[in-house]
Amino acid sequence: MKIVILGQALIHHSVTWPEELQALTHGADAVLCNFEGCLPPDDAWPMKQKTVHAAHPKAGVMLRNLGVTQLALANNHAWDFGHAGLLSTRSTLERSGFGVAGAGHNLASASAAAIYNGVALLSVDAGPTPDWAIAGAGPGVNALRLTCTLGLPAKLLTDLETVTIITGKAQKSARRRAIGYDSLTPQRDFYGLALEGSGEPREIWRCPPQDTARIVADIQRAQTQAKFVIVALHYHHWSVDWGKSPDWLSDLAETLLEAGADALACTGPPIAGEVRIAGGKAFASSLGNVVFHTARAKKYDALRIPVRQGCALIFEDGAWRSVVVEALVPSQ
Q1: Is residue 185 classed exposed, middle or buried when 0-12, 13-18 and 19+ CB atoms within 10 A define those classes?
Q2: Could you report the per-residue pLDDT of 203-254, keeping only the tens digit for each?
Q3: How far apart (Å, rounded) are the C-alpha atoms in residues 132 and 78?
Q4: Distance between CA atoms of residues 158 and 145, nearest Å
Q5: Which of 187, 188, 183, 190 is nearest to 167 (CA)?
Q6: What pLDDT score was predicted for residue 303?
Q7: Cβ 111 vs Cβ 122: under 8 Å
Q8: Average pLDDT value over all residues in the chain
């Protein structure tokens, strides 16, 4: 059995696959990739003002030529063109012969595994994702709705509370609660920024237990349908060092691998990150890019951010390994 898991493919232009990459995917029973983009219908309208990625209309054909079998769609560009763009992307890629996961008409569709040759792909987006783009009764991505609070020492919390009293924010919030506009048991916050006590200033990220439990159940369901279960997770809540796994992600990886996933392959940071292989399982905090048609290539190069070097996870001869992949990135 040979499985190849590639990083994110952001395709705006025609690509010619390097021989080294073709050799990597040659003979694979399954090749998985994160489709970083959208294939919108002609009448769809962008839902944001920047970093909008309508993929090359032949992007699917190009990926098929590389041997890709399954695509993870749960990411922050699946909804660039609204529900219409998200559903068009899924249907277009399905017609092209891919197994797709992570986005769909509702949560059942978005969270279902894409299965090929005994390999099940689950795709999850850890945000940030607007509420309207999260699959539920209607269309969206399969979301892990992370929360963040700012942990501060007691004196700083008191100082900020004093500021809200001086400005009148505390009084206005109290009136809103009394009327019923807001919750009667609000979380401590400062102008919308959630706060809690901490010995030192720090961000505190948490995975909602109900979302984690749902993903665990999806993994266990997929185990009954396939020999291997791969979870593709896309996220933009990065560490200060993009190459390091954030604490919340390391904890989640342990949970999902213990639940039965054979690999957790992450994308989002545009560089390759940590890879941990142990106990017959693999965790990649970021596979980086396989194709990255960014308009910011020159800036990345000037800042020495290694967007041109990605990573792939390979399962072959009964074991996982990682290999370096030279990403296709514009020279300018």
Answers
A1: exposed
A2: 999 999 999 999 999 999 999 999 999 999 999 999 999 999 999 999 999 9
A3: 12
A4: 29
A5: 190
A6: 96
A7: yes
A8: 96
Residue of 126, 127, 125, 122 lying closest to 109 (CA atoms): 122
How many angstroms separate the Cα of 82 from the Cα of each of 77, 134, 143, 259, 269? 10, 11, 16, 33, 23
pLDDT grade, residue 187 (50/70/90)? confident
CA 204 from centroid of its chain's CA atoms:
19
Tokens found for residue 141: 């991505």
Q: What is the pLDDT of residue 332?
A: 55
- pLDDT tens for each residue of 19-69: 999 999 999 999 999 999 999 999 999 998 888 999 999 999 999 999 999
Higher pLDDT, 119 or 50: 119
Task: Please give the structure tokens belonging to residue 96.
Answer: 């092209």
Report residue 47 as tokens. Answer: 């839902």
Q: pTM here? A: 0.94
CA distance 213 to 94: 28
Pairing of strands 147-152, 202-206: antiparallel
Helix (H, G, I), strand (E, B) or coil at 320: strand
- Residues 6 or more apart from 89 whose CB is under 8 A from it? 35, 37, 38, 39, 40, 55, 73, 78, 103
List the one residue out of 105, 35, 107 whose CA is nearest residue 71: 35
Distance between CA atoms of residues 152 and 129, nearest Å: 26
CATH of domain 3-145+207-326: 3.60.21
Domain boundaries, the chain: 3-145+207-326, 147-204
DSSP 98-155: -EEESEESSHHHHHSPEEETTEEEEEEE-S---GGGB-SSSSEE-B---EEEEEE-HH
Q: What is the mean pLDDT of residues 183-190?
A: 79
- Of residues 38, 32, 31, the one with CA closest to residue 12: 38
Which helix (H) or strand (E) segment is 213 a member of? Answer: helix 209-223
Are 78 and 109 within 8 A, CB to CB? no
